[in-house]
Amino acid sequence: MKEMNLKYFIFYSIFWSINQTKCQVAKCDYSYQNYWSTGYKTTNTSYYTCYLDTRQANYNEKLIQIDGKHEIGHSDDDVKWIGNNKLKTFSSIICQKFPNLKVVQITDAELDSIEEDSLFNCNNLDHLLMHKNKIRELPEYILIKNSKLTLLRLYSNQLTTVPENFLLYQKNLEDLDLNDNQIEFLPGNIFRSLQKLELLYLYKNKLRSINPEWFVNLQNLKWLRLDGNQISDIPSKCFAALRNLEKLWIYENRIKSLKSDNFDGLQNLNILNLNDNEIFDLPVDVFASLKSLDGLSLNNNKLTTIHSDSFKSVHNKFTSIYVGDNLINAIDEKLIDDISTLFHFNMTNNICSQLYLKTRNQLKSMLKECFNNYQPRHQHQSQISRPFHHQLIASTSNICGRSSTGQGNIIGGSTISRGSFPWITALVKPTGDFFCGGTLVSNRKVLTAAHCIQDKHTTTATTASEIIVQLGVYDLKRTIEIGRIPYAVETVNVHSSWNTLSEPYDYDIAVLVLDTEVTFNKFIQPICMPNLNIVSIKTGIVVGFGKSEDTTKVHENIPKMLETPIHSNEDCFFHEYRLVKLSSKRTFCGGTGTGIGVCRGDSGGGLIVNDGGAYYLRGIVSSSLIGGPHGCDVDTYSVYTDVTKYIDWINGISTSRF
């Protein structure tokens, strides 16, 4: 994403300093969502003034019928950002009044129509956000004067198609989101001008087929989502032009078979998700051109066998195969031997139902138990024959961040298996009531969020005697389960700079010191503490008991997993300026902003990243905006405490009793 220019943002009434640029704030109100908002640069070049117009409700109602007569109180030429969530019609008056607009955001509104010439005067427009409205039809040439546009979001509307020339002049567009509409058809040359496009989201529509012509000019595309449609077939060499594609999601469709040349040309693809289709066989060499493939997910299809020939030429980086919930009763014995890098192999809920996530030698041992005709190589036999319980990590071991069991559907999925993330903890009250998550980082220390111990606007903190740390926990509704061990807390250490009365969730971190040392086993193991090498990793995993959107429960009983992008504060605020209020220099953002994210019950849990096969704690679930039917605004990013900023503080907390 392009670097953020702060003058395009509307901030809350706080002082924020980035790159030595101050933002002085005029009057603001928490009811900002119901009002017209504009941002402008002042005449003093050293300062950027962020302005939020909070007129009375009748002012807002008049704006539904834009008449161009409302006074903003400053020069129209200085307005760079404009937004409203009450408009029903978007007319040309807006761009006539504010010709230098950079960002137009009309979201979560009643917008159902757009005038053909409404954007003709906004020649400098960079971001256009009109998602979550009721738009049924797009004027074909509405963007003819907006060639500088880099981001276009039209998701969650009622579109059934997109006009052939709608994107004809968008040669600078980088991010296009059309998900969650009712699109049944797209013209073959609809994307012909989008040579710079990197992200294309077409999921959750009604597409029945894929047209290879869509992708002919998308040489820079990196992410493509086609999941949640009604696609029944992938044409030959469909994606051949997408030589820079890194991630491809086609799950939750109706695909019955694959062709050997379906993925030709995708030499940079590292993630391929084909879950929840009806695929019954994998042709020989079907993945042969995927030289960079790291993870493949084929869960919940109709596969009966897996041939090693299907994975020729993918051996350099290939680490993960997920084929759970199929009909597999046989595996080519050469599969594991030929793919030397394979580490994750998930076959849960098949005819031969065991979960495979071991080291390569342990993995082959499990295969021998399941398939009698499999014989591992002789040189590995002495290592394989060792009973697994002898390989559990001792309490004095320096090993961390390793999982002893499978990880379930990690590619685009949500469920996990018992022990797959053995460092997750549940903080419960003596009554057994769950209240927060945590992460085991040593044989005595558990990290969690400070607000789990002492919430905002309170003066009383939870004491050690009021907390029980459940390690090895998997199912909260059970009082006893295999692998679970409760630990009492000796000391509670909330960061001394945690301020319950200030608005930003700064210093939202706490360390619980357990009263006895933990004995590690395959269900209980510590995660690695972060180092500077992992800061550059831009994708993490959150595992927690947070509530799902389709339930009224306060939290889930079984932990769920979410793969989430990691964002800088700059990108975070550009996505949603309200997050400034929750952030600091010791936080970062994570999320997709597409209706999937952390929720109640996830607080205090960890965001982890994988580096070289080991998992490291990158952040702690801290805060998010309130919204949605269950109090979680998962259409925006969430804020995480940056653990890398607290290493010395964590190490300085003593576990000595004397």
Provide a concise account of the structure shown:
7% of the residues lie in helices and 22% in strands.
Describe this protein's structure:
- The protein folds into 4 domains: 1-147; 207-391, Ribonuclease Inhibitor (Leucine-rich repeat, LRR (right-handed beta-alpha superhelix)); 424-514, Trypsin-like serine proteases (Thrombin, subunit H, Beta Barrel); 532-645, Trypsin-like serine proteases (Thrombin, subunit H).
- Helices cover 7% and strands 22% of the residues.
- The model is unreliable at 1-76, 353-397, 406-413 and 547-553 (pLDDT under 50).
Topology:
Blueprint: E1 17-18, E2 21-25, E3 37-40, E4 47-50, H1 57-64, E5 79-83, E6 89-90, H2 93-97, E7 103-105, E8 113-114, E9 127-129, E10 151-153, E11 175-177, E12 199-201, E13 223-225, E14 247-249, E15 271-273, E16 295-297, E17 305-306, E18 320-322, E19 330-331, H3 334-338, E20 344-346, E21 355-357, H4 360-370, H5 381-384, E22 424-428, E23 434-440, E24 445-448, H6 450-453, E25 468-471, E26 485-494, E27 510-514, E28 539-546, E29 555-567, H7 569-575, E30 587-590, E31 606-611, E32 614-623, E33 638-642, H8 647-651
Parallel strand pairs: 2-4, 5-7, 6-8, 7-9, 9-10, 10-11, 11-12, 12-13, 13-14, 14-15, 15-16, 16-18, 17-19, 18-20
Antiparallel strand pairs: 1-2, 3-5, 20-21, 22-23, 22-25, 23-24, 24-27, 25-26, 26-27, 28-29, 28-31, 29-30, 30-33, 31-32, 32-33
